[in-house]
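Amino Acid Chain and Its Fold in Token Form
===========================================
What this section holds: a protein sequence and its matching fold, both as plain text.
Structure line: whole-number tokens from a learned vocabulary of local backbone shapes, matched to residues.
Purpose: to set a sequence beside its fold so the mapping can be learned.
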Amino acid sequence: PFILHPLEVANILSSMTDDMEIIAAGVLHDIVEDTDGTLDEIRKRFGDRVAMIVDSETENDYPGEDRAATWKKRKEQSLEKLRGKTDIGVKMLWLADKLSNMRSLARGYGEYGEKLWDFLHQRDSASQLWYYKTVAEYVEMDLNKTGSYKEYVDRINYIWPGTFDSSKTKYREYRTISVEGCQCIGKGAKGSVYRYDDELIVKVYNEKNTYKDVEREIALTKTAFVMGLPTAISFGIVSVGKRYGAMFELIDAKTVSELIAKNPGQLDRYAGIMAGLARQIHSTPSEDNVLFPDASEQLKSWIHRAFTDGEQELEQRLIKMTEALPPSNTLVHGDLHTGNVFLLNGEPLFIDADRMSVGDPIVDISGMYLFYVAYAEVDPKLIEDFMGFSVQTAKQFFDSFIRQYLKTDDEAEINAAVRKSALFAYIRLIGQIKKKPVLSDKDKADIAMLTEKIKGAEAFR
């Protein structure tokens, strides 16, 4: 009977919490999807929080469309809800619901084997694994110590052996640290870097980053190191509140941003170090398209994010321009800037390798233009807060960097590279602005201004 599943979910939840709102959400979690009940009714009878938790698990409906055809789309959208929520009740409900499902799947798998998938909307075993594994990764930080999480992982491994290390089914304690009072020495898209003490640096990842994301970055860093690139290797993953962190032993090391802020008179020297590092990365070949994906996909994602809601003709022209870039099998960092590079005994070591890929160096060079020049065109404070030094210093740094990177004083060659870098930097900046939930009048004006710059760019004609 229908009621047995929500009651099982509520029972699993009661093993993790005595919060009645969370347990009530467990009983009610399928009401909107499987009955005529609505979220408004749940909200009126049980309150806003119960309705919010139920909504986090309620998939979008596509009337008239085959549920098998919409399976992947529905799952991706619902996973985004999970990833974006911080309420522990949401994560508990997801774990309890999926554990109940996995218990049923494991029983069926024991009886039918691979024929089990023929009974489901999604008949592809690999797709089912993707979904249940992703849920495990998203709730791991908060719930990895619970018996429910360990049972969930164990049942996934029963159907798909070797998916998770067996240690995840046993008691495991992450080292817990606090960065309260620690100096923040760098910020990036994935997190912030703190000086933990005189010898240790900790990168604290954003809440949306999973344990898998941290493991992947460490794997990329180690691979890059073996390939001869100067990377800082993490020696351990830690827990920092509700976030993951990676520890690095960098005795007396400082970021290049810190050094520029302290010694602006040495700007050309630091620009030369960054230019040399960029050339070293950009001359390192790789044939590993799994670990290091195609960088053009990153460029296309910038374009889609910037123009997906308009300017379709412009979007298509930019995509064609990106596809016309010369092929390359050498590495790019993906997020290269002076806050991601430390100097240790005069030698550079880079971190934040999670976006490393293979392709055109414009990915990195346009990023440098964005961080040191383009940000000032919408808000100079962005550069001052991000880099820790003035807009004027930032512009001088980029000018010195690009000359030393290209190894030329030919103004025509330099200007061509700058124009191309500016083009992709403006695209990326529009996408970053559009990430805001609500756009101000200034945001809209900045987007319009940057769009006109792109249309008028000589590199685009």
About this structure: The chain has three domains: 4-169, 175-249, 254-460. The two ends are 65 Å apart (CA to CA).
